[in-house]
Amino acid sequence: MNPINCRASDRNTSVLRWLIGAALIAWLTPAWCQNPASTNVIWSQEFDGESLDRNVWSYDVGGHGFGNGQLEFNTDRPENAYLRDGNLVIEARREAYGGNAFTSARIHTRGRFAFQYGDLEARIKVPDTSDGIWPAFWMLGNNFPGTVWPKCGEADILEIGGKDGIAKGLQNRQINCALHFAGVGEQKTSLVEWFDAPVDLHLDYHLYKISWTPTHMKFFLDGKEFGSWDITASEMKEYHQPFYPILNVAVGSWTHSYTGLDTPEKITATLPARMYVDWIRLYGHPETKLVQNK
Questions:
Q1: Which of 5, 31, 108, 131 is such that its CA lies 20 to 30 A from the CA of 101?
Q2: Nearest-5° angle of CA 201, CA 158, CA 253?
Q3: Measured in whole angstroms, how far is the alpha carbon of residue 10 from the centre of its chain?
Q4: pTM value?
Q5: Where is the GH16 domain (predicted)?
Q6: How far is CA 42 from the centre of its chain?
């Protein structure tokens, strides 16, 4: 046999074996591995219109502090939440309104859209939080308010502007994720992870994500995991039901709550303070369930 032809034949055989092996691996690999969640957008809000879609979004209106002693009055006015240049803008302002010294907005999809399991991600530019501004991207159980907090469950994907960050001079870098729920014996339980970003986050857009499966909730900043909890324990039952997303910019809080700044004169942040949300996208998992009502 000609040695050259023999080597060519060996190469052809090797290539054929590789192709057969690759095809077998692809056939045996589950579809969710072959098609990563990052390419499987099953719900999104791109904020490209002229006004917020009221078939999807609603407002929490009031100035009662929302359980944290917040100083703002959350309105449904276009001054506090509007679309501009392909972004949702939530704007906190220093102005007397409804007996409060500040205004802002808190929007949610309760009763319109909720989901169970999946990757929920948003591209956000937070405002300068120093000191007293508290932006958040988070979720509540879809059974709220019929089921009271914390029995409904809460998952915080992004919070920034906390008192520990203020004390350390890291108020524009230190973020946290958190779970709040009724734990063992129906006693409120809070799990919190803190992370110091390498840059001031208000200078540009960043990606904030929760990856939620039947076994874990994992939290990411720009693709880097900074928090994770196993949710398989019986006292974590809140995290096996649909949740809905919330976006808001709070101002201040009780001294024992998030910012530790409880009076208007303690708020030294530059106002108006604007959070820009470029988009929110839900990437599907095999277990993902959607709840949509319009």
A1: 108
A2: 95
A3: 54
A4: 0.87
A5: 30-288
A6: 16
